[in-house]
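Dear support,

We are seeing what looks like truncated structure output for some complexes. This example has two components. We would appreciate it if you could run it in full and send us the complete token output so we can diff it against ours.
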Amino acid sequence: VLKTVRVVFSKTGRAKFISHLDLTRAMTRVVRRAAIPLWYTEGFNRHPYLTFAAPLSLGYEGLRETMDLRLEEEMSMEELVSRLNEALPEGLTALSAAEAVAKAGDLVAARYELRFDCPPVVLNTLLSKPEILVEKRTKKKTMKTIDIRPAFAKAVVEAEGEGTLVTVTLPCNNSETVNPGLLLTALNAGFETPFHCRVLRTELLLADGCPFR
Amino acid sequence: MDMKEKLEQLFLQVQKPARYTGGELNSVMKDLKDVAVRFAFCFPDMYEVGMSHLGMKILYAQFNHEPDVWCERVFAPDTDMEAFMRQENIPLFGLESRDPIATFDFIGFTLQYEMSYTAMLNMLDLAGVPLRSADRGEEAPLVVAGGPCACNPEPLADFVDLFFLGEGEEVDLEVINLYKEHKKRGWSRKAFLRACADIEGVYVPSLYDVTYHEDGTVSAVKPLDGAPARIRKRIIKDLDSCYYPDYFVVPYADIVHDRAQSEIFRGCIRGCRFCQAGFIYRPVREKSVDTINKQSHDLCRSTGYEEFSLSSLSTSDYTQLEPLLDSLLDWAEKERTNISLPSLRVDGFSEELANRLNVLRRSGLTFAPEAGTQRLRDAINKNLSEEEILDTAAKAFKGNWTAVKLYFMMGLPTETLEDIAGIAELGQKIVNLYYANPDKPKGKGVTVSVSASCFVPKPHTPFQWEPQDTMEQLQEKQQHLVQSVHTKKISLSWHDSRTSFLEAVLARGDRRLCQVLEAAHRRGFHLDAWSEHFDFEGWMDVFRECGLDPAFYANRRRPYDEVLPWDHLDYGVTKAFLIKENEKAHEAVTTPNCRQSCAGCGAACWKEGVCVENR
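Here is the complete output from our reference environment:
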């Protein structure tokens, strides 16, 4: 059985505008460019085996994202990382690689840092409400109203320069995912000139709070 | 917020922001302190289209190969992005640096089709650069343009400082180098442009005075200030030693042709009389197998592309096609890289090669007979016989293919309704052929797609004097075609005759059309190549306002002795030859291709390629 290699990488700067679909295509080319002996699926339309644990929304940055691949030949993980970095474009950096331990289904949550261009009082006011209702698009493209207050119950709010840093861990698994951008949606619902928020995903987490590796 | 911060916010609000963000794999960043010349390479259409264009990839890499030149890419923004840019006062910027292109030294456009002219004007406007050359000051960027439409650039003469005629690799750098010299020794825009006019392949329209007869035809084009009376296009003599990029910028966004491309030759031996490319790129010059093999492999390695295509006109005319494919397949198979080929020559390959090329994995076969009867194919010199088409289709059907695409033109010179009916008949024969095959796949029908475009007479072709059919005539022919088809196995599609009409006007237009284009731009017309943005009635209003009749340009037969607006531009092919070819068309007499015998077109003046090969 071929082992699955999990590459940890960051996606920042200009690369945050690469959509998930485009990232998959770009990474396939990066891996080919790096001449990494990738395993191809069997069958009529053979394609390289390459998957991501959790898609990152367009516009968000990620410090420790993961990508799984399968190799056809043995190669050292240091070599793999250095070859990837030679082939990666601006904004994408490979940090480490190792045989995957956790299964894809073991991923349960993700930690985020949200940077708002408004003072902490604005966010504290919002977060102290008994419920925070926002409209969310469902997979069937209909809208439904959800309460994000429980998901943000443990969010830490602090001042950072003239703005606010919110640190929060949100569910990120097959049964439930909360997009951190919903907090901005809720915030702007009451204001005429919208605030902005930069989203950084800092870690993907297992049930015990350890990093997904 | 400064402009770059505003941009970051904008990117989050528009569709497919990866078209505007830059930073793609292999895009070139430079330190401004090392840069003497900044060049904005503009494609007057959207990213998806422009990023597919090979010429831009070649020149982008070649300019950036010069240590002190920084070339950046610029495309027309989509409507949502443009609205935001105008609202937030963000001028058009280079994808690499995100700096406004109004601060660059050169703004260069590639002119691939006439319907992109308004996009070009809109991009200048978005950049904040005055549209007319005469209104641009000493320090404004130089606006330059090249590409096939530069073979009659007169409708753009008032907007562009200089045009490059022919192939760009050498002449573009000569102009950039001259620019550096002039900047060093004291800059005068006028003196620089005058000096450029002495470089072969450079046309400075402001150095020519055009006068007209009372009936609107050109009476004379007079050079001023000692500029040359005729301007000759440039060609690359030796393609093997000519610069070719060993990398392409690999886009994130999905584009039209997302693959590596290897150019295998320039020019075309065929001489189809309607085809501008077949005349303006003469003579045919091939690259060697070794050069193509190396360039293809380098490109695939540097891009990671899983597919590459061979690029040229009429690819099957490459003299070493089988040896080339053999050597390409040697590494492509190992590296799991696919070679994409036009399907026409599938029948000519050995079974082994066909298998290696995975040709059976494809489902469709494409032909361009262009005309429905042999008589009309002879008249346009399209040397493809019905027998060849049916033979290839029969072989393809034996290989279990079930789809055939056929491309035709309507409104060709000498065409009658009989020729139109011939289109349907040819389609029917292919349908019948499919059902005559005893081994055809069970339960599967055949689809023959017939696509009919409208013929547009183009400059520098034997049909440059021909009237285009009126829109009414074309619509009548389209109706006749519909009525001639008697099976549901043939699906028909055709082009909008109104777009083709405007294309015909602009293709053979003169300088008086500059005011039409400017007025069309002021009305907000841009992206006319996209049918949802094309406002035909609005265009006709503009012509009326400017007091010009579009039919004068599109639908009038021009006498051989009329001065054509592009007569002072020399593409090597002589007017005497084009007249002879026009006469032969009317007699339905064909001309052998360049490898069979020399027809004496005039391109032998360069003493290169097929003109000096042993025949």
